[in-house]
Amino acid sequence: MPDLEIVVFAPLIIVGAYVIFAITGFGSTLIAVPLLAHVLPLKFVIPVVVALDCVSSVRMGVKLRASVYKAEILPLLPFMIAGMLGGVFFLLRVPADVLLGALGTLAMLFGISYAAKRGAVMRLARWTAAPLGLFAGTASSAFGVGGPIYVFFLTGRGATPDQIRATMPVIFIFTTIARIALFAAAGLFTVEVLVTSALLLPVMALGLYAGNRLHLNLAREHVIRLIGALLTVSGFSLILRAVA
After folding, report:
1. What are phi and psi of 166, to 5 degrees?
2. What is the pLDDT of residues 215-241, one digit of tens each?
3. Structural domains of the chain, count
4. Distance from first CA to last CA of the chain, Å, rounded?
5. Which domain holds residue 11?
6. Which residues 6+ apart lie within 8 Å of 91 measured at CB?
7. Segment 111-135, tens digit of pLDDT
């Protein structure tokens, strides 16, 4: 019998994560993975969230396909895939406490940057697709938190908020399918992972529905700052758990 905290908190976390995903086009794994890591092992959490992300990304990508920023996806792909291979290696080989501490540090850094976001956007050259794609791919496989890096690249290449909301699910379609194949080959997709993912699908659908309804009524900037505050607190608490 699962612990009560898992039965109660895991669905609430998934609903909140996919509300944010529907509003912004990213943030589901960024919210879900650090928070779920408090109640479930990281090597279990990441495959579950990847499976849910695959379904939600296809749904959002098809719905918003007219606004996809197509010119900037292709340069990222080979570097994303290379980074994901490295990320799976880290996920399998690095001790759990070290992974938890690294995830907490990344979550805190992303959280602080979102909570304090100000000023003009930094313009990026096309060649930055290589290092950012590698970094994002590695972070996606090892920690499930590559989204902010992709957003940083797209924003620096001139994408509008609507283009980012449409393009991120398409990027996630590629990354989640690749990660599913890599995780399956590595033996991370156990029966328990698949059953948990299936049980959480209706909860994810509820989050997407609510987020799409809220999209027109909430300022994206306020949601981004809320993500930042949640990540800062969650990341700090993960670091404390890792060193305890």
Report:
1. -85, -35
2. 666 666 776 777 777 778 777 877 887
3. 1
4. 27
5. 4-243
6. 42, 43, 46, 99, 141, 142, 186, 188
7. 787 777 665 566 888 888 899 889 8
